[in-house]
Amino acid sequence: MNKTEEIFITENSEGTKRLGEEFGKNLTGGGIIALYGNLGGGKTTFVQGLALGLGIEKRIISPTFIIVRTYDLGLKIKDQGPKLFYHIDLYRTGNTKDIEGLGIKEIIENPNNIVAIEWAEKMEELLSGKRTNIFFKYLGDNRREIKIIRYE
Question: Domains in the chain: how many in total?
Fold first, then answer.
């Protein structure tokens, strides 16, 4: 499996959101985006930009209490139905058993879905193969180091 790594520094939340938007614009096909970082690290802000890059105009809020939010990307894939974006927040889940009961495994196994997972470390053993890991590190003030690692 090939691995590529890029590191970005953002100076504020707008920069983090713009980085997410550029990332979203460059996505082709489905994909799993696993987000790692502390509370307040910029994960949700990045996902808001990602959704903009995918053409989603709805306001994106973290699904902390409902765990999964689904957005239709308005594209139909022949014989496979709509292309969907899933925003998953595992902050309030305890373990893999909690996650397995939510149908997330089926969501991430569908190659047409684009799935952004906050607190992805809680389901690490369910993630494999082609995916993008994104690590958020707080640098002080509003600055963030964002490391993007692609596995293809």
Answer: 1
Grouping H, G, I as helix, E, B as strand and the rest as coil, residue 101 is coil
- Tell me, yes or no, whether 131 lies in a domain: no
Cβ atoms < 10 Å from Cβ of 95: 9
d(CA 147, CA 143): 13
Among 73, 92, 74, 94, smallest CA distance to 31 is for 73
Task: Give per-residue pLDDT as tens, 11-67.
Answer: 999 999 999 999 999 886 778 999 999 988 999 999 999 999 999 988 887 776 678
Instruction: Report the chain's C-alpha Rg in angstroms.
Output: 15
d(CA 6, CA 98) in angstroms, rounded, equals 32
CA angle 90, 113, 6 (to 5 degrees): 70
Parent domain of 58: 3-126+138-151
Q: Is 8 helix (H, G, I), strand (E, B) or coil?
A: strand
**133 domain residue, yes or no:** no
- Cβ proximity of 112 and 84 under 8 Å: yes
Q: Quick check: is 76 in a domain?
A: yes
Residues 6+ apart with CB under 8 A from 147: 5, 6, 7, 8, 134, 135, 137
